[in-house]
Amino acid sequence: GTFLRLTLGDDLQIMYADGLLRLHLCTHSGYGSTMRVAEIGALQELRILLDSSSCEIFLNGGEQVMTTRFYPGINRQCTFEGKGLVELYDMGSMEFAYAEEKEEAH
């Protein structure tokens, strides 16, 4: 069957095998929420969004979604095992710009 494993440092592991997707967090990264499991038939697409305090996982275009608080440690090396296409994007930081208020014409 299909097998996939993504590991981020020592903190997070996402594994798919035998129709189950497992999210495992070490205790200090997930603060108590260490294992989540989703039953899904065939995994066609897996989209993972990570930032400094959360992990969101979208299975097959949002057919199922997992989200959890996630606080990654210093080691952020990412490794992949399995078959498939992997694309990584750096989404950068969100920036805010404030528009000056215009005075109303009288």
Binned, the helix content reads: under 10%
Q: Main beta sheet, described?
A: 5 strands, antiparallel
Main sheet: which strands, in order across?
4-3-2-1-8
Q: Unreliable runs, pLDDT <50, ≥5 residues?
A: none
Q: Determine the number of helices (DSSP H or I, runs of at least 4 residues).
A: 1
Q: Quote the distance from N terminus to C terminus.
A: 73 Å
Overall radius of gyration: 18 Å
The total strand number stands at 8
Topology order in helix (H) and strand (E) letters: EEEHEEEEE
Average pLDDT score: 83
Structural class: mainly beta
Beta-strand fraction estimate: 35-45%
Q: Sum up the overall morphology in one term.
A: elongated
Report on the architecture of this protein.
With 106 residues, the chain is mainly β. It has one helix and eight strands, in the order E-E-E-H-E-E-E-E-E. A hairpin with a 3-residue loop joins strand 1 and strand 2.
